[in-house]
Amino acid sequence: MWRVVDPLDVFLLRIFILDGLTPDLIALQLFTGLALGAIYVLLALGMSLLFGMLTVVNFAHGAFYMLGAYAGIALLGIGVNFWLCLLFAPLIVGSLGLLAERFLIRRLYGRGIDYPLLLTFGLSYMMVEVIRIVFGTNGLPFETPDALQGASDIMIGYFPTYRLFVIAVAVVVLVALWLFLERTPYGLIIRAGARDPQIVRILGIDVARVWLVVFGIGTGLAGLAGLLAAPLQGASPEMGASILAESFVVTVVGGMGSLVGAVIAGVLVGVVVAMTSLFAPEFAQVAIFALMAIVLLIRPQGFFGRAGLMS
Amino acid sequence: MLKVEKLQAWYGNSHILQGIDLEVKTGELVCLIGRNGAGKTTTIRGIMGLTSRVEGRVMFDGQDVTKQPTHTRNGLGLGYVPEERRIVPGLTVRDNLRLGLLAAKHGGREADVIAEVAETFPRLAERLDQDAITMSGGEQQMLAIARALVSRPKLLMLDEPSEGIMPVLVDEMFELFARLRDKGTTILLVEQNVELALGIADRAYIMDQGEIVYQASAKILLADAAIQERYCSV
Lengths: 311, 234
Known about the structure:
- The complex is a heterodimer.
- Chain A is an all-alpha fold.
- Chain A has helices spanning 7-19, 23-54, 61-77, 82-103, 114-135, 161-183, 185-195, 197-202, 207-233, 239-254, 259-279, 284-298, and strands spanning 151-153, 158-160.
- The radius of gyration of chain A is 19 Å and the shape is globular.
- In chain A, 48% of the residues are buried.
- Chain B has one domain: P-loop containing nucleotide triphosphate hydrolases (Rossmann fold, 3-Layer(aba) Sandwich).
- Chain B has helices at 40-48, 70-76, 93-102, 110-120, 122-125, 137-149, 167-182, 194-200, 218-223, 225-232; strands at residues 2-11, 14-24, 29-33, 53-60, 63-64, 78-81, 155-159, 186-190, 203-208, 211-217.
- Chain B starts with a strand and ends with a helix.
- Chain A binds chain B through residues 185, 188-189, 191-192, 195-196, 198-207, and chain B through 48, 50, 69-71, 74-75, 80, 82, 86, 88-91, 95, 98-100, 102-104, 147-148, 151.
């Protein structure tokens, strides 16, 4: 999660102290929530895809997110510019996801939910350790690309350009993913396979290959989220651990397996975190778990989850 | 076309099929009858590669497919309409049909194939963009059959297609099966509705407790009330 003491938050806090609670202030903080939510959405979409279609609870999702940031650092290190990183970092992370599915996770399908869960849990520790060995245990800075530095006027005030960019990327990815799922033959197979893999096999389609692609997309999205988050908070081997818990909250609140749920819950949780860190910073960490508890008490399957999915 | 030799199958620890020998020749409509629990569904699922543990041999179109995965068997021309129909919820009628067409090898254009379906199943044509799961049981069964047909299988296997469907529609459906056979599709039909099934079939196998206990031409069986009484009455 973003640190509570962030230049923008300090700036907003100052307005708050000087001018009191203005509508503009709330609107700006709402935007901060949207940007944070965009990162959550990208993570939760991948998580929900993997759970909904493969029944894999991916505990390595945070580690893939972290890899996205480090892939960016490595690429920038060899002179690749940020815009190409946006393309290549998710591709690298997604390819690693493909390998993990093909050689490890695939063997565990059909054996219950706990096997892949434990495997990915172990995998995440290995990934973190490898990054520590290669890049060191300390966090590394990640420069915001020149073109996206500074703030832009968004009518209600100035807002950091890079955060606007993060929101825009998430929207583009969402639209692309939606078109892919709803408008392509591959998407049709994925949608059908999520509901009933057996009939898809009966109709002559090799489901294993589809699962491989889904895993690549899910982990690639996590990589993209990590890369996008890096200029906001730097990169560290542990950056995936805390965001993993938060994305689980988002996925559970939205309803495990639901993509629409992942989007709505991602934005909601982002806004809740942003608002509590403005008004009651000491509760910012707890707020989303309280939100999850409330949602689960009222609707155990989350906003858009199907009841009994785990049974 | 299809030759099953000494097929045995298990569900967990229970030994369901005790060694089935069965043959369907090109152009035939063969039906497989017997009481609930006789092993008819397991036989078809075994032929389709959907049982976890099998022994014996399944030959299809000259190839040994015993070790082939389900999707490959479909690719070779084995179509299967399962008992539960398995219409994919959340998908429109058109998308369900598209799903059947995706792996098809004949390369027919989607529009042409849909037009063909519309001709055979006018009820589906009116509902192409409806969520398939909201249709009636009979319409869903039509869709399940249409979806299996769009890839133009050489052999179509149907498991209890008449179950839970209005009698008027059942007659219509059986007329369709007879027509399909006459046009060259080989059919293996599992059916509880013995009289109707024997009415259109060329030959029949009767199953009991995981074994084939009797086989004969449909005409002979239809006339033999004693055999029907012994193995098929509920």
